[in-house]
């Protein structure tokens, strides 16, 4: 316009005064005056400017309709008048909380649309109708309002001019974004991102387009916490934004989300700076002033959660009280301020124990929930907060009715389909725990079941593995607790099913029974080829985090469509579905033991004879298991610590002996007594151990408590990460391999790695003599490329080298071949192989170790060889001695044909070492056999 808002108002007021009332030029001046008054309102927030603009524009529109032809309302001048009038009514509707003003705006727009013969003008009027729908949604919260908006936007897209296209696509994208937030339908946010990405981010609406793109990325991240989307949102804002008030708010919010995702506390200071700058820019009467106060309070709350600083929490509460006092009930954010204040007060109660804080928190949270629209995703978090506050009140007062309400509130929160999946899982988990406290075991099992049903969405193939690890790790122990609850409800088969559905999610994505694959090939060769192609795509290296995550999400959608198509084929309705307990029991040949330690109870599920038997383990507790695990880890570390003296190492061996004694008394002994003693002089029976959670770190096969009380003397032990993995390996068709080849690797000296392994070459020679057509990669001859090339067509493998686990990224655990510093041979590399292989012996350190929160996912080197297609894998639970490894390997291969009886060969070799070094269990208890 070239003038300040005040000058513009004065100019157009004089222009209108210089024309006769009712004259066309007078009407046009009135329209410009109304527009100038609206601009002045935006600049100073003076409500009187909106009132005057309404009067001025109504007079102009009435003149156009009455003094000329009514068709004038459909001309560009009429369209501008109605567009400006609509903007004024939208602003008034917001600040006055009067949705009836929207009805008036729509009435005038319909009148003008009927009068317009120009499709371009009609498209502009439709754009205004979209804006009315957007504000109406602020009042009614209805997804139907958003659907109406998107329908109008799609129609207008056909005729809108290039000038107005960015605004149309922006409001269309925002509607889709809101629809996603209400429904959780991922296609909506993907379509929104596609729309907003099609708009030039350097145009006149740069800030709005950039921020909308960032909001879409942030919203998509909130569904299942895609870190890559959050990082892209930060990059988009910092690269393109001009740091307007809105941009500062969004940048701060995005930084807070990144704090939640990464724990990077240093980002809190950056977020505070963004919100503080926004606060100083807007006046107290502006709605964004309240938003800034609430946002600053979030920084204070998160600071308290990360550091324990109570003063930061008290500051947050003070800021929220100011924001709530300035807001009006019925205002869109009023409920969110109440929710945030209630949650903060509950945190303050947790920190101080002051009951008044908890009482006020409950009042505020209930008010917030009552005010939120029915499908608002925040209802899940608010409902969960109410449940937590009710439970805290119960613990203080003992009123059982509070527990009953807490359970129902949490369960209802979990069923808010538009909410983020991790929040829903947490809500169901809270509901289930609360129901167990009420003794309602069956209902609690149902709630756990609902939580576990959501877990596959955290393991979605469209997500980066870092996000998968973070979210699955946050649910560690859920499957074990769910199974314990089902046992308490008298449902042992359901307990097995919950364990199988809640563990090994990433593992089961890769495992396909050969029988299923063969049936698919017979039924439809084209679909079988598509299936193989998709599997190869997913098993390829993940895209860099800077790559658009729609790439992964599109592949996930394609995969789900393909599975649905396959399952429509006759006989393939259960293709790749989690098997039922009955199906698993029918496939189990022998005895499988599933030990479970949870906060609720400790048991072993014993699978044999097509039955599941529950064996309570009263001598086992989760607390004791964690204590013994710490002792085990300390002992195995000290025993191989070159800085430890002889006395410390002897104490470590004694401590490990104590762990094995406890293991026998608390778990293994009762299980083997239940199974029964072996026949005198007969072959020892096989037992497959499928330990859950922290029990997977223990050498169950080596448990002993004196003469005659040793697992090694009672059974031949094998391990499996899940019963499903064992069943699928067994249902595969094993073919004879007359042309089988072998890959043998030995690293005597590892460049830049740990100490030398002088026995590695002799160990490799022992393996090469026993295995068919063995290629031996020795030292510099064992590079990553060479090893992977040989593994690709090998049925057997033996590695005598060092190995390293990566607790932050299990897929980067690696076998240290010659070029490991530049080109490491990782878990991810091996697991991507697609082999029909028999046997792998991993004579390396701690190849079966995984991060504690991901132990049920079998994300370790041993698991990688299973995924690659090896039916039998021998790995280690901790560091192993070079000379002892040679002795064990020699005894193993001397047993006969290890490829057909790997478990028996390993058992014999381990027993021999046990008899030779009975007081040094670190030397003989580390090796385990995994597989069929």
Automatic annotation (TrEMBL):
It holds the Pfam family CHAT. TPR repeats lie at residues 425-458. InterPro entries: CHAT_dom, TPR-like_helical_dom_sf, TPR_rpt. Keywords: TPR repeat. Residues 660-931 form the CHAT domain. It comes from Micromonospora lupini str. Lupac 08. This is CHAT domain-containing protein. The keyword Iron-sulfur does not apply.
